[in-house]
Amino acid sequence: MSANQIQPKLIIHGGAGGHIRSEKGEATVRKALHTVVEEVYELLSFRGSALDAVVMGCQLLENQPIFNAGTGSVLQSDGQIRMSAALMDGARQRFSGVINVSRIRHPIEVAKFLQGDDDRVLSDYGANELLRELNIPMYDPLVEIRLKEWIQERDENFDKSMAGVVAEEALIHEPRKGTIGVVALDNKGKIAAGTSTGGKGLERIGRVSDSAMPAGNYADASAGVSCTGIGEDIMEECLAAKIVIRVTDGMSLQDAMEKSIAESRSRNRDLGAIAIAADGTICWGKTSEVILAAYHDGQEIGDTINWNNSELLGSKTPFN
Q1: Per the CB 3.0–4.6 Å rule, which of 31, 108, 128, 219 could disulfide with 193?
Q2: Which one of the listed residues 28, 35, 71, 179 is annotated catalytic?
């Protein structure tokens, strides 16, 4: 690697919430996350851009039926799937997103297209019109376990406030919240962030998540952040933008994450975040029991699945 290049960094997440209580579930989630990290980091190691790496990572996670994004997305109260996604190019500080789009395999693809458009955030009707305009084939993201989950909740008159993040029989009753997200730093020092979700599930028709807002997905030249958890909590904290702006204003990423997460905990928020700074620091934080994340620090792959429940913050500092 030449002197003017830096070591790429990558972190991804598949949701946050309660501990995975089955060994099978833990192994399934770990394998899925590590596989995506390995594939995406290979792109970064061959001088792929942060933006391309984030899009690729989101697509791979949207393909994983255990996560609540793309295939495997949860159903809203009327039994329909409506997905949202956002992409932010930190180098250009450009945000794009799609809200409550249906019958598409990769919502992040629409966000990617909108990076080059004058109108960079589209909601349901406009987004679906754009799919037709781009000749993107229709796709049914429904998986059987999500349908079972919705039928069960309908029979119980929607007692739960949201669906589970991991679509697996053994985990269906476990309270977790879900999106998927990717933050990348490429060898030119550019940062990008992407987030995609099926929503919280069982919600009112038309409810909008944080994932397609700067509150849940934000990046500039100094840092990038993707959030997960209760969307309304993330919106009210404006978490992703807050962390990034604190780094831009001179705080270290660790200090910005710690302060923001501590503030969130003091207000009884239920959320988590992953982040990378321009100096190569990788960081994650949460108020929930667990954040399902994995990362590549340039030397090895690690994850946070069994990360100490008592800790608010974790990080991997850059090495020479």
Answers
A1: 219
A2: 179
pLDDT digits over 128-165, tens only? 999 999 999 999 999 998 998 888 877 776 565 555 54
Per the rule left: phi > 0, alpha: psi between -120 and 50, beta: everything else, 206 is left
Does 179 participate in catalysis according to the annotation? Answer: yes
Structural domains present in the chain:
9-316 (3.60.20.30)
SS (H, E, C) 10-75: EEEEEEEECCCCCHHHHHHHHHHHHHHHHHHHHHHHCCCCHHHHHHHHHHHHHHCCCCCCCCCCCC
> CB under 8 Å to 172, separation ≥6 — which residues?
145, 148, 149, 152, 164
Q: What is the pLDDT of residues 202-237, one digit of tens each?
A: 889 999 999 999 999 999 999 999 999 999 999 999
Alpha-carbon span 291 to 287, nearest angstrom: 9
Cα separation of 304 and 291, whole Å?
Answer: 7
Alpha-carbon distance of 171 to 27, in angstroms, equals 13
Would you say 252 and 278 are in contact if contact means Cβ atoms under 8 Å apart?
no
Residue 136 CB neighbours (<10 A): 17
